[in-house]
Amino acid sequence: MMKSKIIIPLIVLCAFIVTGCKGKFNALPVATGSPYEIYVVLPEGEWNSEAGKAIKEVYTSEMVGLPQREQNFRFSFVDPQHFDNIIKPVRNIMFVEVGDIYTQPKFSFTKDVWSQGQMILYLKTPDIKSLETFIPENKDVMINFFVNTEINRRVKYLKKNFNKDASEQLADLLGVEMNIPTELVQMKKRNNFFWISNSQALRMDLVVYSVPYTEEDAFSLDKIIARRDSIMKYNIPGSVDGSYMKTSKAVDPSLRVLNFNNKYVAEVRGLWDVEGDAMGGPFVSHTRLDEVNNRIITVEAFLYSPKKAKRNNLRQLEAALYTLQLPQETELPEIPVVVTK
């Protein structure tokens, strides 16, 4: 009897150790820092070099599609001598490594080095001077690497934390699946149109709508905006009689083509306002082709947050667009994080 009492705990302990060895037990702390915050590890003497200035210009550049100027990232330089245990666990890090073992500037990346969920971008170069042209030429790579990383973090969160009732109602109405944030609770449904919003001072909204696929140029910027204005005018009235949402003419909307899960996605960013009322804000939409039902599906996020910063809130809501699954899709992959053009 004494032996059995000893053996059983030992078996449990061994099982725990084996489980840890298989990677199910992770001793790393959770990554620290704020979303869209980057630390660049670079010798202090190089901060004010042309290459250092170019890196700063990339990460402090203006985010597209906002009504006021906001940087893409919150940004800090760190000298390697001061890269200590306080900074090591932060979520987004970029190392600039200079050495004659490299023949030309190049990127590489790794993750989960000092914390869970951490992403590290390496820029390896034979000398600082060679970065002066390389960095501006690769601006989009440097920005998209960390933007996509942050969106993937949010998508991972939304896989487990979403408004299941709203997502089911969307599936019943339009036959598509999407992980709708739990903050969004107020719904409006019409034929082929779904709208859901929160009930807070910071207004966050998602809309999903479909139209038949009948035109070859249906994914052009002009056609996407024309459909948007027609559908929003009918479905989203303003607070004043006769007022309605429309695309603002204050700035030109922009179109970017994405390849997500080997599918064509037309991403549009711009500003919206209300005809006949003093409201407005930023929006971002994804337009895709549902081949099974020969229709176009658009999902859009928009904000109303006058006089307040909008970058993080819009990016957070934007992540939900990436959870859209059309009838022919059975999985929700990560957004590709790449370090090449």
Low-confidence stretches: 1-23
- Would you report the number of β strands? 13
Q: On the 0-100 scale, what is the average pLDDT? A: 90
Helix content: 25-40%
Keywords:
341 residues, disordered N terminus, 28% strand, alpha+beta, eight-stranded antiparallel β-sheet
Short description:
The chain is α+β, with helices and mostly antiparallel strands and 341 residues long. 27% of the residues lie in helices and 28% in strands. The protein has 7 helices and 13 strands.
Q: Would you mind describing this structure in some detail?
A:
It is a single chain. With 341 residues, this protein is α+β, with helices and mostly antiparallel strands. 27% of the residues lie in helices and 28% in strands. The chain contains 7 helices and 13 strands. The chain has helices spanning 2-21, 50-59, 131-137, 139-160, 164-174, 221-235, 311-318; strands at residues 37-41, 74-78, 92-98, 106-111, 119-125, 186-190, 193-197, 203-212, 244-247, 254-260, 263-275, 280-290, 295-304. The strands form 2 sheets. Strands 6, 7, 8, 9, 10, 11, 12 and 13 form an 8-stranded antiparallel β-sheet that branches. Strands 2-1-3-5-4 form a 5-stranded mixed β-sheet, with helices on one face. Helix 2 packs parallel to helix 3 (131-137). The longest helix is centred in the middle third of the chain and has 22 residues, at 139-160. It is elongated. The termini are far apart. 28% of the residues are buried. The model is unreliable at 1-23 (pLDDT under 50).
